[in-house]
Amino acid sequence: MPWHYIGSCPDGERFLLDGVNVWDAPWHDTRRHARIFDPLYQQPMVFGVYELRLPARTITFAAGEFSNCVWGFFREAL
Predict the structure, then answer these.
(1) CA 70 to chain centre
(2) What domain of life does the native source organism fall in (predicted)?
């Protein structure tokens, strides 16, 4: 399934997914991978797929480092 870019940020900087700061909850590794393209250079990359498991819902996303401590975030296309 295709993934779409939702944003990037430096390590630890506030980044919201569905209103939740990704750095405030543990990331659960799904052992899946997402083939994505760097939005700036269109370079193919492979990022891990993670879940934020909250009491009322689970947020699934792909994340990885574009460069040292600069994280990119993707969601599955609907």
Answers:
(1) 12
(2) Bacteria
**Residue 59 host element (H or E):** strand 58-67
Among 3, 68, 54, smallest CA distance to 32 is for: 3
Task: Name the 3-class secondary structure at 22.
Answer: helix
- The rounded distance, in Å, linking the Cα atoms of 8 and 32 is 20
For the segment 50-66, what is each residue's pLDDT rounded down to a tens digit?
999 999 999 999 999 99
| Residue type present at position 24 | D
Q: What distances in angstroms separate CA 66 from CA 8, 10, 11, 19, one per listed residue?
A: 9, 10, 11, 23
Cβ-Cβ contacts under 8 Å for 1 (sequence gap 6 or more): 76, 77
CA dist 29 and 48 (Å) reads: 7
This prediction's pTM:
0.93
